[in-house]
Amino acid sequence: MEKTTRNKIVFFTGFTFLGIFALQVPLMKLVGSSVSFTLFDAFAPIAGAFLGSIPGVIAVLLMQGFHFVTQGMNFSDPATLIRLLPLAMAALYFSRKMPLNVIVPALAIIAFVAHPVGREVWYFSLFWTIPIVCYFFQERWLLARALGATFMAHSVGGALWMWFVPIPAAVWIGLIPVVIMERLLFAAGIAGAYLAVNNAFALLNKKLEIVYKFPVHARHLLASLREEPAR
């Protein structure tokens, strides 16, 4: 039991440091937007799939917390704290199907339209019906799982931003096309990162003769990496 726990701690630590590294890798910048897409945006949400729901959330918070500290960010600034939560919620959504995957975006919609500015642009919160719809398909389709995760993050960030960082209605309206582009990109990145890591872990399990086996999900493995059933 002690050895198993130690292996899990080592894996958790290694996965967390891998996420910190991913924060340093910019991938692209959306045209017409200040949004930069980093490897971390794709990597962080999949933490829950390999570490488990709560450990995945903790790992993402540690990754971001370490990054914020090393970057000298001001933790008294509400905007800094708001940035901590969304990707942690994405990791929670991506980890498995659970009621929170519906409850959180539903509460975000309520919180958004409860604000005077939110009532002016209530239709912006319709984006957050996406994770609710994806909830019913997330065990069937990987892209639904990834899309739900990225919009879960968006719902939490959007609701908090509405209340703690004043933004006029016109800005929210202008963000609509940007949200569509960035979230589709993020969803594709999350799905791609998950497939890459899952198959990389399976390859390591196959090639390395070690007692510890990395967690993998057989459904999303290449045929060559799937274990043959015992005869």
Give a topology summary.
Elements lengths: L1 H21 L3 E4 L6 E3 H5 L3 H5 L1 H18 L7 H18 L4 H15 L1 H5 L9 H6 L6 H23 L4 H39 L24
Antiparallel strand pairs: 1-2
Helix pairs in contact: 1-4, 4-5, 5-9, 6-9, 9-10
Concise structural overview:
This protein has about 230 residues and is mainly α. It is built from ten helices and two strands; from the N terminus they run H-E-E-H-H-H-H-H-H-H-H-H.
What does this 3D model show about the protein?
The chain has 231 residues and is mainly alpha-helical. It has one domain: Arp2/3 complex 21 kDa subunit ARPC3 (Orthogonal Bundle). Helices cover 67% and strands 3% of the residues. It is built from 10 helices and 2 strands; from the N terminus they run H-E-E-H-H-H-H-H-H-H-H-H. A two-stranded antiparallel ribbon has the order 1-2. A hairpin with a 6-residue loop joins strand 1 and strand 2. Helix 1 packs across helix 4, helix 6 runs parallel beside helix 9 and helix 9 crosses helix 10. The longest helix is centred in the C-terminal third of the chain and has 39 residues. The mean pLDDT is 87. This is ECF transporter S component. It comes from Candidatus Kaiserbacteria bacterium GW2011_GWC2_49_12. Keywords: Membrane, Transmembrane, Transmembrane helix.
